[in-house]
Amino acid sequence: MDAEEKPLLTYCLVTYNQEKYVRESVLSAFAQTYSPLEIVLSDDCSTDRTFEIMRELAAGYRGPHRIILNRNERNLGLGMHASKVWGELSSGRWLIGAAGDDISLPERAEAVARAAQQYPEAACIWSGCDFIDGEGAVLPRSASAEHGGIYTYRNTIPAILGATVAYRRDVYSEFGPLGGEVRNEDIVMSLRSLLLGEFVRIDAPLVKYRKHDSNLSGKFTDGRDKIERMRFRLGYAHLQQLADLQKYLEKHPEQYRRIARLRRRVSDNYIVSQFCSAFRFCPSCRLHLVIEALTSPRYWRIAAARIWKRLWR
């Protein structure tokens, strides 16, 4: 890629109470080989030393990348925090997402830039990853492939791990901020990406995704508690999706048939996701859920058929 063709990319690292892991995460951002790159280090009013560690590392950085350091005055939550980073603190053509407990390989930003140049219609680029535990050891289950190819998807939303994603700037700017209660921002941004372009998957593992007790998915007391909280989170994401579809339709009324199909699809996906979470996290509920699915109206029958495909493939 010629120097004059290289667009500015933004590496967006968002943190909250991750003092144990944030040093590794920030150093992996500093080690990115791509340039020009701006790195946003943004903390959501942590109560531990997360921000202090980021500030110390930023003060000692002497590399080629531009560093933007931010700490929110109050805790905004994931949706509003991401919106602030994307909308107010960043200026790159592509927004590379990262969390304060994950590690990006040095070539991650470079790979995103190459894929964006190779596939100009891309709105969302994501990669494979290796799962690691709290101590950094690689776990058996990884979301990467051995052959390291690149694949494109259009007119469908593939399964994406949010920790590996990069979005084209207009995926955010075309629709505006996420709602304050949205915590599954990858669900919302995936639909936006579908409306504006295509998906590109880089099979190579470019992220080490950490699984530990402090993960968002690990902060539940039992199966039923996890189900209820996930239903609330999915519900807020679903409402945001419907609002985004309406906003897009107002700008592109000629696509009303497509938007009508997508409304049905996101509603079906909402039902399926609720059912999946209950089926996985509350074994005692499974028989009841299956009976309910098979005897319920249209959405539950659709959900039941897709459940088996998703869980047992």
UniProtKB/TrEMBL annotation:
Q: Which GO terms describe its molecular function?
A: hexosyltransferase activity
Q: Coiled-coil annotation: which residues?
A: none
Q: Does the keyword ATP-binding apply?
A: no
Gene3D superfamilies in the record? Spore Coat Polysaccharide Biosynthesis Protein SpsA, Chain A
The record's listing under SUPFAM superfamilies reads: Nucleotide-diphospho-sugar transferases
Q: Which UniProt keywords apply?
A: Transferase
What is a single Pfam family found in this protein's UniProt entry?
Glycos_transf_2
In this chain the Glycosyltransferase 2-like domain maps to 12-174
Q: Which domain of life is it from?
A: Bacteria
**InterPro entries on file:** Glyco_trans_2-like, Nucleotide-diphossugar_trans
Q: What is this protein called?
A: Glycosyltransferase
